[in-house]
Write a structure and sequence with these properties.
The complex is a heterodimer of chains A (299) and B (104). Chain A contains 12 helices and 4 strands. By secondary structure, chain A is mostly helical. In chain A, strand 1 (25-26) and strand 2 form a beta hairpin. Chain B has one domain. In chain B, strands 1-3-2 form a 3-stranded antiparallel sheet, with no helix packed on it. In chain B, strand 5 and strand 6 form a beta hairpin. The chains are: A mainly alpha (299), B mainly beta (104). Chain A binds chain B through residues 1-2, 4, 6-9, 11-12, 15-16, 19-21, 23, 181, 184-185, 187-189, 191-192, 195-196, 252-255, 280-281, 284-285, and chain B through 1-4, 6, 33-37, 48-49, 61-65, 81-87, 102, 104.
């Protein structure tokens, strides 16, 4: 059997990504696709789309800072090479989601103010835990935090969002499809690389498991803020009033029809899916999943 | 050998405990564009829990892509998921079916 590290090459990335699923795309989607008129023209739906997209930009900025920081502390050339491709993937994600904010009508000069206004504080704390490990050049913790926890979360969040948007907003759904394809490589690297490294450094396990627990808590708190807010309730009701059942399409994900489910039900299926996924991924690489505390319901 | 020289489905299998001849399958490109062109026929997208997995297919537990082999799969076979660059082994599941486990 060849060394698994041999798989990480720029050539492979070129043939799979820019020459594969990103061929002929414009900011991640076919050039002729636009945001639906309803999203642009309806202030409630537009505001909801901007708020959601800001969280994606914040998460991807974290991933960009993290992957670029890990290039310099990777223990071998193939890992450096992979993280270099991941850095470009993350930079692309920042760009395509930022472009979506512009498509939704955010002016370039307003961008940072809009991000500061809407960025969820718990998501920022989630990112800070990871970036602290990267700042300390802690490769093992950084890759678990980034490629298992952050990317594992993104993988499920993007899948769910792609399902919801597939019929009513193909442009955004296609943008998400490309990012999901990238996330497959990222989570694969996390498991493959750390699976072998964790055996070399078993003394690191408890500290890394604590990091996973802390990051998971702030992830759940982000979801709680989002799905339990009055704004979300109103937006969901408004969107359902504006979009008839046909336009919403079949939005079944993990057995739940997202087009009809209440926000609390969507939060539960998303959280449950991600936490189970963390448990499975960590178990495969020899780490014990730590159950995070349940965030308190915001007033 | 570079990653693109790895042939994920063709005769990398080792599950030979059952000596009855294996069914063979003609693979065609099903539109999975996340790997280099010449390997696309070895993969397809998974359509969720209701998706029927054929005897020559296995679900990658890491990235949830279906890996397709030109031969019927059996416990002990080894496959490569090029979408997430993970090696997997086919194992007998508790319900009598086949499952996958990662090889790190």
């Amino acid at each position: 059997m060849t060394n698994f590290l041999d798989a990480y090459s720029i050539q492979y990335w070129l043939e799979s990504c820019p020459q594969g699923y990103l061929m002929d795309t414009d900011y991640g989607h076919p050039a002729d696709e636009k945001e639906p008129a309803l999203v642009i023209e309806d202030p409630v739906l537009r505001d909801a789309a901007i708020r959601t997209t800001v969280q994606l930009v914040v998460g991807e900025r974290c991933a960009l800072a993290s992957s670029s920081g890990l290039v310099g502390c990777a223990p071998d050339a193939p890992s450096q090479c992979f993280l270099a491709t991941q850095t470009l993937d993350e930079a692309r994600h920042v760009e395509v989601f930022t472009q979506r904010l512009y498509d939704l009508g955010v002016k370039k000069k307003e961008l940072e103010d809009v991000i500061a206004r809407y960025a969820n504080p718990n998501l920022v704390k989630f990112a800070e835990i990871l970036l602290e490990k990267v700042d300390k050049k802690d490769f093992v913790a950084g890759v678990v935090g980034q490629n298992v926890v952050l990317e594992g979360m993104a993988f499920s969040v993007f899948e769910m969002m792609e399902t919801v948007n597939r019929d009513p907003n193909p442009k955004f759904a296609h943008t998400l499809t490309g990012t999901i394809a990238d996330e497959r490589r990222h989570v694969g690297f996390g498991e493959n690389r750390i699976g072998s490294l964790i055996r070399q450094y078993p003394e690191r396990k408890s500290e890394i498991e604590q990091m996973q627990k802390d990051m998971s808590y702030f992830m759940l708190a982000t979801f709680a803020d989002n799905f339990r807010s009055n704004e979300m309730q109103q937006e969901v009701e408004h969107a359902r009033d504006e979009l008839d059942a046909g336009a919403r399409g079949d939005a079944t994900w993990q057995g739940v029809n997202l087009a009809q489910a209440e926000p609390a039900e969507i939060e539960a299926v998303l959280s449950d899916t991600i936490l189970k996924d963390f448990q499975a991924r960590l178990g495969r690489i020899g780490l014990a999943y730590q159950t995070p505390a349940k965030p308190r319901v915001a007033a | 050998m570079s990653s693109v020289d790895v042939d994920p489905g063709a005769d990398r299998t080792r599950g030979d405990a059952d000596e009855t001849p294996r069914r063979r399958y003609e693979l065609e490109d099903l539109g999975f564009d996340e790997v280099p062109k010449k390997y696309r026929k070895f993969y397809r997208r998974w359509n969720g829990p209701g998706d029927t997995i054929a005897p020559n297919e296995a679900l990658c537990p890491v990235c949830k892509v279906i890996i397709r082999s030109p031969r019927e799969l059996r416990a002990g076979d080894r496959l490569y998921c090029m979408a997430c660059m993970t090696r997997v082994r086919i194992v007998a599941g508790e319900n009598g079916g086949l499952e996958t486990e990662t090889l790190y």
